Amino acid sequence: TLGTQTDYRDGEAQTDPYSPEYVVASGSVPELLTLATLTWGRGLPAGLAEVEMIERAREKRAWEATLPAMDSASNIEKRRKMMEDMERKEWAFREQEIEKLQEVRLEVLKKLLWRQEENQNELVAKRLDAHWQNHQKAKEEKIKKIQSDTALMLRKLIAKRKNVMGKLERRDIIKEYIDFASQPYAPLSRIGYFPDNHSERYMVKNFYLNTFAGLCELEASLPDSVTQVKIKAPKPKQTVTKTGYIKRAARLEVALAQVHQ
């Protein structure tokens, strides 16, 4: 009554196919026994190569059956010639197999070399991109520096052109105080006295504020209303009218409190 569902297909849970025991009758040589070396995963299930191997084994057995008996010199010479021809055919077949294997290995090697070349090209492209990015950053920084230097030189030239003839000009106090970058707001020490230098000399030194004894004396002179603060509790707001209705401000405060929460 219960069904199960797994993440695996049935084929993944199967073992190797079962091979039962067998008994060979006397006087018979079953052809199936010639394939006993093939096992599941190693030749089975049979593919094109295995079928060709079986066909060649059949042809060789048929050829062995046609060999003449070794009962005379002519038959022996004929048998030797047939065996030499078969040996040449086998060597030619073996050479073809070797060539096929070499072609397959060559194709695999070509793919590996092609993949290696692609990886190398990708790595070179990444390095070039990073190098180009660094050059771009250096170029942008150089351009920014040139622009800032240009602005500085332009400001200097404009300042020099204001008074080309070196004439004495009367000080315009109103214009100076309108401009917040002028000397009254931002004085330069190279032009004159900088008021922030030695500013500690203008600090007020008071006995009651800088010493502990002065603080104690100052605290003793203060009235009790300063040191002892009396706090009156605030009275609650009247949120209900005489007729029993809730005021609009109270309803709004409750709504705001709910929104805040």
Automatic annotation (TrEMBL):
Belongs to the CFAP91 family. Keywords: Cell projection, Cytoplasm, Cytoskeleton. Residues 4-156 form the CFAP91 domain. The keyword DNA repair does not apply. InterPro entries: CFAP91, CFAP91_dom. PANTHER family: CILIA- AND FLAGELLA-ASSOCIATED PROTEIN 91. It is found in: Cytoplasm, Cytoskeleton, Cilium axoneme. Transmembrane segments: none annotated. One of its GO terms (cellular component) is axoneme. It comes from the Eukaryota. The keyword Cytoplasm applies. It holds the Pfam family CFAP91. The gene is Maats1_0. The lineage of its organism: Eukaryota, Metazoa, Chordata, Craniata, Vertebrata. This is Cilia- and flagella-associated protein 91.
